Amino acid sequence: MNQGKTNRLVMTALFAALTFVATQSIRIPLPGAFVHTGNVMVLLSVLLLGYKKGALAGGLGLAFFDLMNGFAMEAPYFLVESFIVGGAGWLMFHYVFKEKVKNPSDLWKIVITAVVTGITKILMTQLKNTIILLYGGANFEKAFNGALALLPATLINVAVTIILVTILFLPLEKALAPMKLR
User: Fold this and answer.
1) Which of 1, 99, 138, 166 could be cross-linked to 143 through a Cys-Cys bond (beta carbons 3.0 to 4.6 Å apart)?
2) Would you say the pTM of this structure is higher than 0.85?
């Protein structure tokens, strides 16, 4: 295995571990979910490692958290969600902005990317919770409204993700650039 492949493999594993730690270390419970910083690491993973490796790292970190904390039924969902939500961020970053964020004046591109990612996360959470409530026997209106009541933690997680990714992306990008991870 050459140096580049080894670096990418090690960084993918590192970002999976960082996602797990970010989810495990800060947990503020709210109805239906909890506030955590795992989503920050998922988006940073996708932006810094590329779509496939980053979404895999983020998804594995979240899934491992679920497996270790009694949420095993949620693990497959969050692995898939990392690819969908990460894909929204990657498409925005890669195809709309063409990855050109090289100085602080370009940080608005990261903010927009994080907002698009956050909107996708909110939609995925609303859909998942609505389906769960429908499966539990609620009619569509009650399921949809019940799912809305479970969104506060997701909204806070999205806001925290937008802020922290905006702050952390540029220094991490510069530090990791020599490794050519994408």
Assistant:
1) 138
2) yes
